[in-house]
Amino acid sequence: MASFAVISRLKGEFLLPQSTIDWWSLLGSNLLFASAMIGIAMIGPVKTTLFSYIELLATIAVAFLILGQSLSPLQALGVLIAVGALVMAEMVSLRDTEPAHTET
Known about the structure:
The chain has helices spanning about 1-10, 20-45, 45-65, 75-95. The longest helix has 25 residues, at about 75-95. With about 100 residues, the protein is mostly helical. It folds into two domains: about 1-45; about 45-104, no CATH class.
């Protein structure tokens, strides 16, 4: 909603949704966002991080399977870079949380 307000202000026009489906879409997206924020608070940071990793792949799968969309080679490269970055970040995180090995 904040981005909508900023863009409307910059363009000098404030347009409200024009149809019933537009209003339902606005309401639905805000309810889903609020539900996500409540869910994140309930499940904690570790599970939230796992969810954010899965979200990227699930979005691509749904777009492909349900919407019939496909990725261009450049988009596929972007996905590989994003997934690679997530894997590397997780590896660093795991390495940093391992207990130090001490020799006795």
